[in-house]
Amino acid sequence: MSALNVEEIVKKVISELNNANSLKECEYGIFESMNDAIEASFIAQRKYLKHSLSDRDKYIKAIKNEFYKEENLKKICKMTVEETGMGNYSHKLLKNRLVLEKTPGVEDLKTDAYTGDKGLTLVELSPYGVIGSITPTTNPTETILCNTIGMLAAGNSIVFSPHPRAKEVSLFTIKLINKALKEAKAPDNLVVTVKNPTIENANIMMNHEKVKLLVATGGPGVVKSVLSTGKKAIGAGAGNPPAVVDETADIEKAAKDIVDGCSFDNNLPCIAEKEVIAVDEITDYLIFNMKKNGAYEIKDKETLNNLQNLVLSKDLKLNTECVGKSARYLLDKIGIQVEDDIKVIIMETDKNHPFVIEELMMPILPIVRVKDVDEAIELSIEVEHGNRHTAIMHSKNIDKLSKMAKLIQTTIFVKNGPSYSGIGVGGEGYTTFTIAGPTGEGLTSAKTFARKRRCVLVDGFDIR
Hints:
Elements: H1 3-25, E1 30-31, H2 34-48, H3 53-68, H4 70-84, H5 89-102, E2 112-116, E3 119-127, E4 130-134, H6 140-153, E5 157-161, H7 167-183, E6 191-194, H8 199-207, E7 211-217, H9 220-227, E8 232-236, E9 242-245, H10 251-263, E10 275-279, H11 280-292, E11 295-298, H12 301-311, H13 327-333, E12 344-348, H14 354-357, E13 364-370, H15 373-383, E14 390-394, H16 398-408, E15 412-415, E16 435-436, E17 442-443, E18 450-458
Parallel strand pairs: 1-6, 4-5, 4-7, 5-6, 7-8, 9-10, 9-14, 10-13, 11-12, 12-13, 14-15
Antiparallel strand pairs: 2-3, 3-18, 16-17
C-alpha cells in the first residue's frame, strides 16, 4: 500500500470520527452553533409536516411519559433550585406536574367550516414553521415543557434560548424531551438549543430569517427585544399583581389565600400577589388572620429599612441574590430568626413605598389601607402599572367585582381565591407558563402557536 493511500485512509477515518462526534453532540438537540441549530430545526419541521395529528399526539404523550417518571421530575426540580438558587422544591414539583396534566395538545386545534351554495370553506390552524422561544430563569423547566407541548401540537419545531442562569437544567430538560421524541420515532431536531446560551445567540435566533415566530417569556426588556425584530412575536412580560380585600369578603379565607398565593414558589411566578390593598375597617382583622396562616409582620421603621436595603439598591434595582428566596432566609439576613412555618413577610406601608411599586419576586407583601372599595380598585389599577397581567379581589359584592374586572383589564382576574388558581391550581381551565399580556394572546396554548389559513372549495361538497 502506498504512503498516499495510507494518508487518504487516515484522513477518511478522522473525518468519519469527527462526523460521529458532531452527530453525538447534536443527538439530543444540543448544538454548538445557533445557526446550525436553526438549520436543523428548519429541516425537522419540513419533515414534521408529513406527520399526522395522531403522530403529534403520540410524540407529546411520549414527552409527558418521560417526565412523569419520578426520577426525572424530581431531578429537574432539584436541579432548578440548586442552579438558580430560587424557589421551592415542592412547589416546583407541583408546577411541573401541572404542566404535564393541564397543558392542551392537539385537541386545542379547532377547525371552522362554512358551507353553502358556493361550496365549502375551511379555516384551519396551521404551523408557523420554526419558533424561537426565549425562556426565563424563574420557571425554566415549566416554560420549556409547556411551550414544547403547545408548539409541537401546532406542528412547529422549536429553537430554545434559555436563560444563562438556568442553563444546565434547561439543557437537561431539552435532552430528555429529545430522548422521548427519538424513542417515539419523531423527526430528529424538532426541539433544539445551543450548548452555550448567551445574549449573542439569542440575537442570532431572533433575527434569523428561518425563524418565523418569536415567543419571549421574561421581563419587559426581552419582550421589547422580540417586538423590535419586525417578526410576529408573542410576549409574556412582567406583572405586579394587586390583591384587593373589601369589607364583604370572607376575611379568614382571604387571609389564607393571599399568604398561600404570595408564598407559592417563593413568589417567583408573575401571577403571585405582590401587594395587598385593604379597606380600612377590615385591615386589622385581615393582618391578624394572615399572621395565623404563616405571615411575619414587620412593624418598626428601622427593620423595614433594613429589609429594603437588603432587597433593593438605592436606585431601586433588585438584589438578584434575594429573588425567589424564602421569607425565613430574608429575615435571617436582617437578623431575625423565625420557624419554618413563616411563609410571607408583611408590613403596612403607604402606596408610594418601593415594595408596592416594584415587582420583587420574593415573599414580601406590603399592605396599604384605603377608606373604601372604590379607592382600593383605583389604587390597584395604579400599582398594577398597566402590565395587564394578573389581579386578585376578595369580595362578595358582585357589582364591585365586575367593576374591578372591567377597569383593571388584566389577563388573569382571580376572585376569592389564591392567585395560582388563575393557572389551574385549584381553579378550572388549562395551564400555561407563557402568559402573553403585552401582546394580547393571554394564556397561550397550541392554538396560539398556529396560523389561521383559509381553504376554499368552490361549487363543491355542499350536501344540504
